[in-house]
């Protein structure tokens, strides 16, 4: 009995300080880069290239807003879907601003960075599983978007391109400026993105291929901005970067 | 190692207690077995208790964003009645909590939670000795005594893994206790307000109620059935409203009380959620509860 105060004295400080620990789960690092597929000349933030029509393009300013990135699980085998359908417990698939599978913070990417230089977009902590697609949404930047140019030119915009074009068969460069506040989607296949207890971490790089943005259209055309935004979405790719 | 230390602590407290000097039920004139917080007051009554609870809940969609929380907590409390109409009490929780989200990210925390101090003022009793009807006003507050816990790299654990809100949360309520032969009844309602705590979190205002009936066929044991409810407003984080977890939940709580020796009351029970109207996808597990109360 005399030992009780000693025991108490030893245990109380131990109990009152507290302690914490953390074991990391799945982590998917997303990054964003830009580069050209065809030959392009780079001078600081200026890019010179030729589109698929033979027009010679010079981009002096180019910004694109990537609104969100969501990774999509591979379809379940039919038998598993059946079992889930028979379960009395319903499952709701919520669509929220951000979720463990969705990066919902808009990011404005410009051509100031050298080609191929990755920019960390963010971190997803999705449930373990096999993921087959990434769904990208290009949408207008809000005031809280990351990477907004200081001059405010991208707020409320999805795309701003400025430069000159020398149409095929002509010699004199003609200036253009394209702006869009539209929305464009891209569903990109993921190569073997599997996250599990044994493979907790992965890294995927989204690449914008700027030399394809002005394919199939003239930047001087009336509906050029709409077509260019479609091109931005369709020319984007994603691949593992580790 | 620390889990066994934690388990030993209440036992050590009881071992350290001085021997009993009087019979509590004799002093208040009523043989009803009472749990901590529902005892009859008499001047000089001092009571210590240890209440152990195990519970858990899951928030969110299992295939998308679920977060599962499990907790084992031991509430160490002491109550003292300096006057026949006043009981002062203090409670310190010792908690072990595990939080795991859908990505397998797992956080574990253990230590003291937010302390609670309260005063129960008996504003009505039908007679001085062995009253049949007691009405009391309860006032008190939770205090920000839980330390901010961090992981091995010094990064603070998430808010869900912290063992308390780190805020001053005052509460006030009314409690009625009635005694009629082998039966006793408790009705209470307590409202609480939260102030801003750790990381700008502020819990929603809450109202908790209990309606309980207890049948005691012998001096040694009793059965109790209670209906406990909680109605809670939306919490805020840096002023942004978060309704998940707010709303109404009702529990049905069967319990057994047993007195193996004079002035000792053991209590074993479960609080089963029977009506869950909480916002968001919140699944509450039954709360297992074991307690020992001892009159000094």
Describe this structure in words.
The complex is a heterodimer of chains A (242) and B (296). With 242 residues, chain A is mostly beta strands. Chain A has one domain (36-240). Chain A has helices at 3-17, 78-86, 224-234; strands at residues 19-23, 27-35, 41-43, 46-50, 56-73, 102-103, 107-110, 119-124, 129-138, 159-166, 174-180, 184-195, 201-209, 237-240. Chain A is elongated and about 100 Å long. By secondary structure, chain B is mainly β. Chain B is 7% helix and 58% strand. Chain B has helices at 2-16, 24-28, and strands at 46-59, 67-83, 86-101, 106-112, 116-125, 133-142, 169-180, 183-192, 201-202, 206-218, 221-232, 235-237, 240-242, 247-261, 264-278, 282-284, 287-295. The longest helix of chain B is centred in the N-terminal third of the chain and has 15 residues, at 2-16. The interface between A and B is large, with 35 and 39 residues. β1 (19-23) of chain A pairs antiparallel with β4 (106-112) of chain B.
In short:
The complex is a heterodimer of chains A (242) and B (296). Chain A is mainly β.
Annotation keywords:
heterodimer, A: 242 residues, 9-stranded antiparallel sheet, 3 helices, B: 296 residues, mainly beta, Lipocalin
Largest sheet of chain A: 9 strands, antiparallel
CATH topology of chain B: Lipocalin
Percent range of helical residues of chain A:
10-25%
The CATH homology group name of chain B: Autotransporter beta-domain
The assigned structural class of chain A equals mainly beta
What is the string of helix and strand elements of chain B?
HHEEEEEEEEEEEEEEEEE
From the alpha carbons, calculate the radius of gyration of chain B and give it in angstroms: 20 Å
Beta-strand percentage range of chain A: 35-45%
Oligomer: heterodimer
Provide a count of the helices of chain B.
2
Overall mean pLDDT of chain B? 87
Radius of gyration of chain A: 25 Å
User: Tell me, what's the shape of chain B?
Assistant: globular
